[in-house]
């Protein structure tokens, strides 16, 4: 493997996000949004061939479907995946999704529903809770947040708890759900909620980012994980796969200005 010298922050994040599915085995995987979807495809084409991806319609595919116009690409189907089987996978815990909420708090709770102190009179009405409540109690979820700041990682609780985390007062009947949180990948770092008492702990800092910068951009305390490191750069082989999965460069539109993977020191 040859470490790449020229890569974008989006490509660095895709490689880091793919790690969310390492060791998952034969799980149904959903990457919601361009970066999570490319990351899931990268995982399947490298270290996690057993994860199950769909064509976005009703079939499982052996080769991830590229983003955008497909040209002469022909999917290699490996099975049927109608809604009934999708929900069988969801409810039985045999799914691992990567989602992009608008707010996340110190408990790992997430919000995609509405902004404002009173959900009955929201300042901003968004999607509603959608499938977040059921997903968060049924199966593992990871997250991608493209803008790491205190509006996203809020002080206190999220405005609407669309997705439960580690706050016991919001557990169904006071019982911790069997589902779990995986990696939280942002434009500054990678962290999880596996610290003491499910505290947020930083696993890796993207090149050129300091722990202090991440803490300053976060509304709740962070810990340094044992072995905290610099996020690994993509390899040339990984970049080639990413280009195959995203031939039209949709990834370049995710982060403002499509910044380089190694940012200049402040």
TrEMBL record:
InterPro entries recorded: NagB/RpiA_transferase-like (IPR037171)
Gene Ontology MF terms: transferase activity
Domain of life of the source: Bacteria
Keyword set, alphabetical order: Transferase
Annotated TM spans: none
SUPFAM superfamilies xrefs: NagB/RpiA/CoA transferase-like
Protein name: Glutaconate CoA-transferase subunit B
Species assigned in the record: Pseudaminobacter salicylatoxidans
Organism ancestry: Bacteria, Pseudomonadati, Pseudomonadota, Alphaproteobacteria, Hyphomicrobiales
């Amino acid at each position: 493997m040859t470490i790449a010298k020229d890569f974008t922050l989006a490509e660095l994040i895709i490689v880091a996000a793919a790690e969310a599915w390492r060791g998952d085995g034969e799980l149904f995987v959903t990457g919601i949004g361009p970066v999570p979807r490319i990351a899931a495809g990268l995982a399947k084409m490298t270290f996690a061939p057993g994860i199950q991806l769909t064509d976005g319609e009703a079939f499982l595919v052996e080769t991830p479907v590229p983003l955008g116009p497909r040209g002469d690409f022909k999917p290699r189907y490996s099975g049927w995946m109608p809604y009934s089987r999708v929900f069988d996978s969801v409810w039985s815990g045999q799914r691992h999704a990567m989602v992009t909420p608008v707010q996340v708090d110190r408990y790992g709770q997430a919000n995609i529903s509405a902004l404002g102190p009173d959900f009955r009179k929201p300042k901003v009405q968004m999607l509603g809770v959608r499938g977040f409540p059921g997903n968060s109690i049924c199966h593992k979820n990871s997250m991608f947040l493209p803008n790491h700041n205190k509006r996203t990682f809020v002080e206190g609780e999220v405005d609407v708890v669309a997705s439960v985390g580690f706050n016991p007062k919001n557990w169904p009947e006071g019982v911790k759900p069997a589902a779990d949180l995986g990696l939280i990948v942002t434009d500054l770092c990678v962290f999880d909620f596996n610290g003491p008492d499910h505290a947020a702990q930083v696993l890796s800092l993207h090149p050129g980012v300091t722990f202090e910068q991440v803490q300053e951009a976060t509304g709740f305390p962070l810990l340094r994980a044992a072995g905290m490191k610099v996020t690994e750069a993509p390899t040339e082989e990984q970049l080639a796969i990413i280009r195959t999965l995203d031939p039209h460069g949709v990834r370049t539109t995710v982060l403002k200005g499509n910044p380089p993977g190694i940012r200049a020191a402040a």
